[in-house]
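Hi, here's the filled form for the chain we discussed.

Project: internal
Contact: R.S.
Residues: 264
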Amino acid sequence: MDPTPDEILERTQWDFFWLPEDAEVCDRPEILYARCERDVPYLNAVTRTRAPAARLPALVREVDAAHAADLSRWQVPSTIETAPLEAALEAGGYAPAYENIAHVVEVDAYRVRASSGILTRPVDSLDRLRDCTSVSERAFGQSLEHTESELRDDLARCTEPGARVHRCVAYDESTGQPLASGGMSLFPELGFGLLWAGGTVPEARGRGAYSAVVAARVTRARELGFRMVGLYARVGNSAPIVARQGFSRCGRMVCWERPSPRVP
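And the returned structure, exactly as it came back:
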């Protein structure tokens, strides 16, 4: 039986091809998680749990120890029976942090939303990657520090043969200023593109720059022969935005977190 869209989205979380060298992966049939000495949530996260209820408390203790000095995140998707895992997480000091709604759209059914005065370009140079990073910082209100080596590694993931990442930037056609950007991880075996980090600088919102970035990624997925693209969209944030782009909801995923002991 073919996997459902919700199951496909969950499976994208099982592939840590993008993980930096200072992070490790624990992969057993009952659990999959990453750990890193850096206190970065997505580098200290559980992305698959397939264990009977009796084993869950021990797995929660194992992960808590593996993430001992860092914020620990546990993804709880609607593709599994959630109640036993949620009970074990609560007993282990975790709490729900935020909820995501799974959204997908078939590339052949996607309809481009109108925008004018916007040019979208793929990230194929360091300058364009810096534009992409700058937009993300302003769109999400975060300061992201990248070494030159990290930037070159990120660029290679977009441009090397068999690249698994596609990133793009939308520019103002008249001024050349970067307005919006977004990324997509490629899963050829699933025929699926996972969208992430789509955002627009505050002063450019409402002009269609985000729609242009969505359209560019869907176009790239179609060129690769993919059937669908999708994402986990946060409730109260990006979920209503992607719904207006024509994406259909197909499930949910709640992130549970245990705070970092480094934070007083």
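Let me know if anything looks off before we file it.
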